[in-house]
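Tokens in:
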């Protein structure tokens, strides 16, 4: 065999000609990566701060995913910078005050449309920056960066593939197109002052006067909002929580109660984002872990959504209360909220009542979709208990002190909680009466659900 001809050299990364183009220096590379990292960090932070005030159900879910991806990308970029003779890394320094201003303006988006159109603008700029970096960087000599940029670009494109139709849907009328275009042009002008995302473009002369929304401080809103499809937002009838635990009931009814519990979990990202937004100056690993958990909880809610849609139920008509995120966000400190989150997840670990019981209840119905959901939900919650143990338990000293703090916080909530009105106190019986005699639609059957 003639090895020289048949086996690709350079591990197949590129041609000799491509590898022979000198490319970026370490210093220039690090400067670019720090700017990209800063934008990723700010996008994460922007979505965290907008989670409660954003009403649209689907946007909350997608933002939960996107903020976690941004956290992952930031972590990969930090690690790569740390490999390039950089200690001290200064990753938490603002690389350019003009870049900071552009992202401060994004944070001040007024509506969901402005927020998503603005985020889309920055994601498009990021994609261009990755392409420019790929053009300048040597694919062999700087291969570890080249690799990071490839998978970051892949997920950036995935996020844009969601953002494009989402912005289109929010921009339903022509009267909304003009102000949105003006808002994006404003962000583009701010980024232009920074010499573009990478800082490599000539900045135009500074405008004599410009109006910046970020001249006023950003007001964090901790009251969760839901869009107009949802009503009976304060329904405190606890029947679903009692029903799934009641072994005397038919497993089928208990599994419907579990689907409902999953669906309601979108309130956890609302609550957890409030903790993150009010907990500055932690190591990046904290924000990464919290981002992962935020996405998992949104994913659990989506599991419930899938179960309802697959079985022909319009979940938006159910009372999905917001009391949990509302009360924790507005009546407790971030530490107390986190202690409660830990206490809940710690309490899900015993096999006879916790996540194992939920999975076994699913198994009793023979419904394959319910089993898969609760198999993974169980695995996720074990991870969440570990995340809580890592980040909140040390703040209180040990597990017992954290649980005690949570119990105290629950007591405060009981004292401070306002009286709620249940618009439909008998909703569970009405709902279950409609689905009791229906067979679960197997996951192997074709679904017409969106
Ligand atoms: Fe969950
Ligand atoms: Fe969890």
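Residues out:
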């Amino acid at each position: 065999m003639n090895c020289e001809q048949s086996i690709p050299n350079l591990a197949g990364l590129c041609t000799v000609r491509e590898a022979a183009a000198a490319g970026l220096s370490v210093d220039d590379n690090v400067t670019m990566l720090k700017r990209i990292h800063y934008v990723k960090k700010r996008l994460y932070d922007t979505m965290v701060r907008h989670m409660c005030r954003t009403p649209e159900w689907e946007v909350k879910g997608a933002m939960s995913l996107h903020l976690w991806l941004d956290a992952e990308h930031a972590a990969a970029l930090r690690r790569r910078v740390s490999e390039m003779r950089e200690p001290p890394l200064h990753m938490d320094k603002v690389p350019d005050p003009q870049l900071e201003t552009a992202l401060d303006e994004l944070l001040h988006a007024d509506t969901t449309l402005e927020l998503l159109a603005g985020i889309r603008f920055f994601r498009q700029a990021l994609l261009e920056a990755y392409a420019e970096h790929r053009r300048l960087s040597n694919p062999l000599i700087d291969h570890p960066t080249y690799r990071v940029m490839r998978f970051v670009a892949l997920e950036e494109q995935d996020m844009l593939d969601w953002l494009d139709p989402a912005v289109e849907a929010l921009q339903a009328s022509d009267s909304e197109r003009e102000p949105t275009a003006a808002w994006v042009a404003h962000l583009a002008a701010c980024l232009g002052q920074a010499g573009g995302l990478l800082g490599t473009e000539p900045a135009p002369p500074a405008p004599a006067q410009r109006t910046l929304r970020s001249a006023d401080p950003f007001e964090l809103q901790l009251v969760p909002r839901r869009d107009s499809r949802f009503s009976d937002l304060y329904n405190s009838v606890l029947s679903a929580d009692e029903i799934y635990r009641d072994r005397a009931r038919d497993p089928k009814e208990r599994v419907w109660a579990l689907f409902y519990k999953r669906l309601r979990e979108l309130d956890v990202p609302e609550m957890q984002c409030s903790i993150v937004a009010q907990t500055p100056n932690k190591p990046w690993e904290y924000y990464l872990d919290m981002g992962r958990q935020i996405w998992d909880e949104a994913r659990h809610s989506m599991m419930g959504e899938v179960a309802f849609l697959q079985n022909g139920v319009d979940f938006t008509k159910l009372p999905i209360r917001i009391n949990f995120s509302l009360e924790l966000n507005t009546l407790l400190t971030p530490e107390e909220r986190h202690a409660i989150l830990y206490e809940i997840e710690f309490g899900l670990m015993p096999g006879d009542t916790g996540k194992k019981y939920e999975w076994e209840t699913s198994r009793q119905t023979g419904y394959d979709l319910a089993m898969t959901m609760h198999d993974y939900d169980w695995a996720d919650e074990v991870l969440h208990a570990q995340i809580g143990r890592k980040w909140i338990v040390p703040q209180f000293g040990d597990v017992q002190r954290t649980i005690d703090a949570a119990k105290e916080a629950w007591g405060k909530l009981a004292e401070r909680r306002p009286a709620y009105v249940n618009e439909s106190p008998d909703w569970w019986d009405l709902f279950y009466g409609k689905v009791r005699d229906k067979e679960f639609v197997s996951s192997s059957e074709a679904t017409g659900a969106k």
